[in-house]
Known about the structure:
Layout: E1 5-10, H1 13-21, E2 31-33, E3 46-47, H2 49-53, E4 72-74, H3 78-92, E5 101-105, E6 108-112, H4 116-120, H5 124-139, E7 143-148, H6 151-159, E8 169-172, H7 174-180, H8 195-202, H9 209-213, H10 217-224, H11 227-235, H12 243-248, E9 255-266, H13 268-289, E10 291-302, E11 310-320, H14 323-337, E12 344-352, E13 355-356, H15 368-388, H16 405-408, E14 411-412, E15 415-416, E16 423-426, E17 429-432
Parallel strand pairs: 2-4, 7-8
Antiparallel strand pairs: 1-6, 1-7, 2-3, 4-16, 5-6, 9-12, 10-11, 10-12, 10-13, 14-15, 16-17
Helix pairs in contact: 3-5, 10-11, 13-14
Amino acid sequence: MDKIYLCIDLKSFYASCECADRGLNSLTARLVVADPSRGKGALCLAVSPALKELGVKNRCRIFEIPKNVTYICAIPRMKRYMEVSAKIYSIYRKYVAEEDIYVYSIDECFIDVTSYLKLYRMDVKSLAKVMIDDVFKTTGICATAGIGTNLFLAKLALDITAKHVDDHIGYLDDELFKRDLWFHKPITDVWNISRGTAKRLLKYGVSDLHGITMVNEDLLYKEFGINAEILIDHANGIEPVTIKDIKNYKSKSNSLSTSQILFEDYDYESTLLVLKEMVDLSTLELIEKKVVISSISLYIGYSDDLRSPTGGTRRLNEFTQSRERLMEYFITLFKETTDPNYTIRRIGLGYGNVVDEKYETIDLFTDEEKLKKEKELQKSLIEIKKKYGKNSIIKGMDLEKNATTIKRNQLVGGHNAGLECPEDYENGKKVKNEYGPKS
């Protein structure tokens, strides 16, 4: 029996949550989710459909919203969105088992409904409608759905086909895919094809999925490496991976990473301070997870988009979790690769080759007593922070002018973490409200 998948997306999710909490119609209300305290350049995390119809683009910046458009600006509340997302997940669970759901993001999931159509005596579109109607009735949030005979076609049906049908439920099988989407442009509408990939394909005269099928596969493998296999499969409407495969997958290598977009443009020295804070916090995570690493990576993104990012990866000659050692490695990498002539807006760091701490490198030059004391101190910090909160213990550098740790400890995913939000912004002006989360 052929597989049948749903891909369900919560329409303008963050904005819809804010509209629902205010008793507003998420399809007609003009609302953006953004934090104006970060300035006019703050990113809008979500834009309501009514504003999109007026030409306001999703993920725009506040200053890009036309001045003649009236709208509500709601401060992000990530814990609230996570709470609503969990509630919606529980709605899906009323209809299908956990093993048949793959959560793709906070507002999107894939569901294998193959075995449920006979159980409910429904066709797939009817089952999809029952589920998204339940979501709307329970939460006030609109959802759209894509239906496909594999995960790729379900995603494509959601992203492209569902936008052009009245019930916002798209459907694709192999035949419809080749008829309706093989020659679809722009190719960047297709899942997993970025502007960079599209530009590289254009070198071979390819501007749609059908064009990929006409290119010699050896050329594609030379250009894209192993990723060419995915391009070739998707161009033919093929996706062999199932939800079961995803859930059974175990990575052969592990890594840890953390990143942040800075609140404003930072100079070289201020960014170095933030780097030290990030290393400080991330080494606590290594201790807590009882792992050691043998490579580090650094990413520095500049305010001027014309300046390419810098950084890189360094393989260490040891497996370690020592804060002191890793701080030294990162500072050296930063100073060797960062351009001091440009202001910086993005910073990320990563740890590679993550293995159990039993593999920690100990040699004749290791001061084991000093290392033991450092670990005991780190473990104590972890326990205190768990019990009394992340900001219960802070370091002197966290109090410096451009430090970010104290503020970021109050955020989730880099955004305001609160459930309640006592104020909105209406066209840039603060207004008090009594809107809190509604059950």
